[in-house]
Amino acid sequence: MRTDLIEKVVIVGGGTAGWMTAAAMAKVLGNMPGLQIELVESDEIGTVGVGEATIPQINLFNALLGLDEREFVRATNATYKLGIEFRDWTRIGHKYVHPFGFYGLDMLGIEFHHHWLKGQALGDPHPLDEYSLGVVAGMKGRFAHPRPDLPNSPLSRIAYAFQFDAALYAKYLRGLAENGGVRRTEGRIVDVLQNGQTGFIEAVTLQDGREIAGDLFLDCSGFRGLLIEQKLGAGFEDWSKWLPCDRAMAVPCELSDDQQPLTRSTARPAGWQWRIPLQHRTGNGYVYSSAHVSDDEAAETLLANLDGKALADPRPLRFLAGHRRKAWVKNVVAIGLAGGFLEPLESTSIHLIQTGIARLMTWFPTRSFDEVQIDRYNQLTVQEYVDIRDFLVLHYSATERDDSDFWNYCRTLEPPDSLANKIDIFRRTGRVIREHEELFTETSWLAVMVGQGIRAEAYHPVADVLPDAETLSRLNHIREVVASTAASMPMQRDYLNDAGMASGTVMAASA
Amino acid sequence: MNEHSIREVVIVGGGTAGWMAAAALSRFLNNGYTRVTLIESEEIGTIGVGEATIPPLIAFNSLLGINENEFMKATQATFKLGIEFVNWGGVGDRYFHPFGSMGQDLQGLPFHQLYLRERARRVMPDITEWAMTAVAASRGKFARPGREAQFPLNQLNYAFHFDAGLYARFLRNFAEAGGVRRVEGRIVDVQLNDETGFVESVKLSDGQSIAGELFIDCSGFRGLLIEQALETGYEDWTHWLPCDRAIAVPSKLSGLAEPFTRSTAHSSGWQWRIPLQHRMGNGHVYSSAHISDEDAQRVLLDNLEGEPLAEPRRLSFTTGRRKMAWNRNVVSLGLSSGFVEPLESTSIHLVQAGIARLINVFPDRRFNPLERDEYNRNMKKGFEWVRDFIILHYKATKRDDSEFWKRCRSIDIPAELSERIEHFRNKGRIFAEGVELFPVTSWVAVMMGQHIVPEDYDPVVDGLDVDKVAGAMEQLRTAYLDMAERLPTMSEFIANCCAAPKPAEPREFAL
């Protein structure tokens, strides 16, 4: 057996990132001989965890952990999510949904949207939204799980994610991690010991004097990057030029009757507001640019736009869009906010944690810490951030809004080349491209490009193989099937109740 | 109408009890001036476990003018002819508590006395072979006896099993169609009159205040008005009935649904099994002093016949009753008025009895204490009858295989119950008061099933000719058997008249 195996992993920080990492490591590496996992966190330091929305990839993470979905949903007050509704982004009064899953049905070997584009050219007025089961069901408050047993039904490929209480999620994962053998140590870190020669982190010192040594340190300490930045100076790539929002104000409020399985994002004069309905309350927040609006005004806007009574005072958060130049330096890997931050416009925060963990598992080191694999890890991480950044910038740059300085700035900003190229290709050929396994699929790019008002001037020539009347009648058929399928799905509230997933339930009379 | 008439009735809580009350009042207060408002919150779920009932529910349905087939279709209901008790008298034991009567009384003498004399002379089949319901139930048979039904079909008394969540939804539609106003909201405050202490209004979280003259508290265990606001007090019966927790879970049907509830005793409680059209309802009622929640859940899951369909739900309760079901201008119904475990399916009945009694003594705004006292006396009696009948099941057992059963055997039971048992042991006599909930048949079936053996029969029976009686009894037994053979199975019967519509398979793309 080799002698340079990692024997001790120390996770610094116990928010969502820390406990996701701990739970996954316990599951995947729990049987490695002699490996110990310890997580250090301090109850004195709050976690950022606000209401969190996720994307369908979370299901892979949950499956990896072997979570029982019903138990998980109940434990975290979760609701389902079929996509994101964007209001006022393209122009005030406009809305569209970015659904998970697919639009319509691919036909003649080409993607559905070419047929839709042809229909539009023929004067068919129905928006893309009407061809997505996720959108139609989501807007009506309905939800059901996929039915892979019905391959010709749009239900076969409906895709979903969750919205949950991040603090409860961390708590739930903590239970799993501790059961899996992760040791939790309570304490505030006051010092970090570095090897004088190599610069590797050797241990962290707690306020009470205890030293916790390790071979590999996972920095989940949040924005500040206790190890990765404050000790190892990884450097930060600042993207505020492209993504000028640098603050958020978060507040939970009471639920309203309007409980769709969708996250909602509403553009505001200096940013945008999220609305995440959970089972017991709605999470809200205003993400804004401090150069364009004051904190007080932002709080006021937020409070004026809740659909129920506020349940707490608005909580301010500050951040900088961008990422650590190197997520992995020496024997420290940054996961979560310590590794970078992109505003939650497309619910990517938890996903970035998850892919960071997955990549770390793939490239799990030995004590020799080979530079080749560290470089590869960092290169992949940066690419992932760049891909997501481009997708986020698309929302800001393709807009007609000119009603505030903020929107004028966003609209006139030169987009990154990679994004400009993608938009250009769509505009001229109707083709949507997805590069190097990037996170957001063709469906996502299509949804947001079309939603933000980008018009394709052409479509795939194969779409013309169908006679015009046939194209229109097929579009009509697809819309009908989608509408009737959505109507047959239960309301999310009933669905949660009937499956015993409703939280906080009280027993009515029994048997 | 006069100046004292009640104009505003406010029902607090929208579970089974709340909607039953709303439905009944929408029918009986349909006078043009009394307004009925029901306040419920989507945030507070109700638990729709399988629900079993007893025959008087038919009277409730017909009072309301509810079409039985429509009601069954809407609630996934099945018919119920009685309860099978397994492992109650002793491990391995089995007996049936049938609805309806057993045999036919002769010259004013109850049938079971004739049976007892015959049994003293020869080996007899079980007495339930003279119950039409038991004979049909053991063969899975059912037919609805029409109003004109002849002997022995007219003895086929029945009740229902249904999905409580769907039942509440069904009654909600009924009540709303009858003019009941539903208000969505969570109650955060209760306003009392300074002088009288009467509830004047309740305040919702959105600031809305809802005033009323008569309040009906259907808020569940906590008793939002009757206890939290009026501090009425609770009579704790745990020393007689030690079970204080339950875990419920639905499961897949493993075969055809049967027309009876089954109760299986375990080492620290018992398990219900309620077949509905689309699933089986199951639950474990247990004493937390004798088994942990985890073990109780394991026992439940180990004893399911089909795979579980939802996350098990837990609840805890304190058996007992509110000292005054009606206090000031608040009438409590359902769990807020008390709780006795569902061993004899009495929860819904107690709600129904409360509603009927309230309508009988409906107050005006002067709230004459006479009416309140009459109501309270009546409800107290109703709860106590149920309580004593339930205690009988625990007390009369040979089981001594666990601490739980040793404790149950040794408890001091209420004096009235102990007299009943002694009368039965002495000469098989049951002295039931005219209006009691459980008829003579019920007492006989359970006492004999639980091995309380009369030492003698009523000497008056000796006035009847032995041979004639024996011949008549044999004829009766054959009549029941023949009838049962001719009946359809319950599944056939339901398929013909009241099957819930199967959820339509979603439409598929046909391109």
In short:
Helices cover 33% and strands 19% of the residues of chain A. Chain A has helices spanning 16-29, 58-65, 69-75, 112-121, 133-139, 166-179, 295-304, 349-362, 371-397, 405-412, 417-429, 442-451, 468-488, 492-498; strands at 8-12, 36-41, 51-53, 79-81, 83-87, 95-99, 161-165, 183-186, 189-194, 201-206, 211-213, 216-219, 236-238, 247-253, 263-268, 271-277, 282-288, 315-318, 322-324, 328-329, 332-334, 340-341.
Describe the structure.
The complex is a heterodimer of chains A (511) and B (511). Chain A has helices at 16-29, 58-65, 69-75, 112-121, 133-139, 166-179, 295-304, 349-362, 371-397, 405-412, 417-429, 442-451, 468-488, 492-498; strands at residues 8-12, 36-41, 51-53, 79-81, 83-87, 95-99, 161-165, 183-186, 189-194, 201-206, 211-213, 216-219, 236-238, 247-253, 263-268, 271-277, 282-288, 315-318, 322-324, 328-329, 332-334, 340-341. With 511 residues, chain A is of the alpha+beta class. In chain A, the strands form 5 sheets. Chain A has a 7-stranded mixed sheet. In chain A, a hairpin with a 4-residue loop joins β16 (271-277) and β17 (282-288). The N and C termini of chain A lie far apart (60 Å). Chain B is of the alpha+beta class and 511 residues long. In chain B, 35% of the residues lie in helices and 19% in strands. Chain B contains 15 helices and 22 strands. Chain B has helices at 16-28, 56-64, 68-75, 111-121, 132-138, 164-177, 224-229, 293-302, 347-360, 369-395, 403-410, 415-427, 440-449, 466-486, 490-497, and strands spanning 8-12, 35-40, 50-52, 78-80, 82-86, 94-98, 159-163, 181-184, 187-192, 199-204, 209-211, 214-217, 234-236, 245-251, 261-266, 269-275, 280-286, 313-316, 320-322, 326-327, 330-332, 338-339. In chain B, the strands form 5 sheets. Chain B has a 7-stranded mixed sheet. In chain B, strands 8-2-1-12-21-20 form a 6-stranded mixed sheet. A 3-stranded antiparallel sheet of chain B has the order 3-7-4. The longest helix of chain B is centred in the last third of the chain and has 27 residues, at 369-395. Chain B is globular, with a radius of gyration of 24 Å. The interface between A and B is large, with 44 and 57 residues.
